Amino acid sequence: MADNTNKQTHITLADGTVIPQVGFGTYKLQGQQCYDAVRHAIATGYRHIDTAAVYANEQEVGRAIADAIAAGEITRKDLFVTTKVWNDCHGKQATEKAFHASMQRLGLDYLDCYLVHWPCQGNGLYTETWQTLVNLLGFGTVQTIGVCNFYPAVLDEIIAATDVTPVMNQIELHPGFSQATLRDYHQAHGIVTESWSPLGRGEMIEHPVVAAVAEDTGKTPAQVIIRWHMQLGCVVIPKSATPARIEENFDVFDFELTDGQMARLTALDGDDSAQKRRGPDPATFGVNQ
Ligand SMILES: NC(=O)c1ccc[n+]([C@@H]2O[C@H](COP(=O)([O-])OP(=O)(O)OC[C@H]3O[C@@H](n4cnc5c(N)ncnc54)[C@H](OP(=O)(O)O)[C@@H]3O)[C@@H](O)[C@H]2O)c1
């Protein structure tokens, strides 16, 4: 297995926090499979793990981290760990309780990044929830805070209400759904874009344009897509339960897409066969969910 630990790239967030650009997604990983996948990701060199309360795997993620530390593979400070507050825990008291419950399940004494999972506009509590994350920052158990699935109207609102801009917005982004407008907004506000479902839930790997660019580069379709995210300036968190794919997705630091190859992949936004969103629309998702 190629050791890419020291080749990996990092992004500095607006508050100075440094985040490994390629992280490991854990949505749908459960139980022993989750534990094994996270251990394998750490052994492969990933130093950034993305989980969430709603994934119901924080305990396994935490156990994998603890065992990797105990085995001498990493130290806690080598790792960047993100978790998220779910939609049914918005509002000051519920969010504080959710944060402490996540910390307990993860078994960590500090968290690198806490995110609001969805704005959940129907609940009307996203500003209070964001303010609660801002307050949590002051206690020192979380290093940095951000949001997921926020769009300009709700970003404007939370920034105006709290005077604190999220350092990162984790959004659905993949070839076929490159989110140019939202990325421009992020850039103007110093927010780093983090791509979820970066492989389009695995489906974009099959696309003929991706396959053609992969053939040109001699890399695999997944590697080409992950590199596209990196060259857009995004943090990217591919998920896999499969050891060989976990390694493949992290072997992305020794090649570059040309401007032409980048443009071909970005142009899939205009291609019906690339299918746009895989997940729900944040403007309507998450009312009491
Ligand atoms: N904030 C949010 O609202 C939100 C929403 C969704 C996801 N996320 C985060 O983003 C992470 C990634 O998104 P995702 O899990 O939805 O989708 P994804 O990473 O785009 O795709 C995962 C799928 O692709 C397959 N795959 C992975 N690497 C592959 C490779 N090299 N070749 C072929 N197939 C490959 C996986 O299969 P196997 O596992 O079978 O190998 C799995 O079915 C999540 O795990 C989660 O951490 C956040």
Automatic annotation (TrEMBL):
Active site annotated at which positions? 55
What segment(s) does the record annotate as region Disordered? Answer: 269-289
What residues correspond to the site Lowers pKa of active site Tyr?
Answer: 84
Query: GO MF annotations for this entry?
Result: oxidoreductase activity, acting on the CH-OH group of donors, NAD or NADP as acceptor
- What residues bind substrate, as annotated? 117
Q: Record keywords: NADP included?
A: yes
Q: Where is the NADP-dependent oxidoreductase domain?
A: 22-268
- InterPro entries associated with the record: AKR, Aldo/ket_reductase_CS, NAD(P)_OxRdtase_dom_sf, NADP_OxRdtase_dom
UniProt keyword annotation of NADP present:
yes
User: Matching SUPFAM superfamilies, A to Z?
Assistant: NAD(P)-linked oxidoreductase
Cite the entry's keywords alphabetically: NADP, Oxidoreductase
- CDD domains on file: AKR_AKR1-5-like (cd19071)
| Superkingdom as given in the UniProt entry | Bacteria
Q: Which family does it belong to?
A: Belongs to the aldo/keto reductase family.
Q: What is this protein called?
A: Aldo/keto reductase
Organism, as annotated: Corynebacterium mendelii
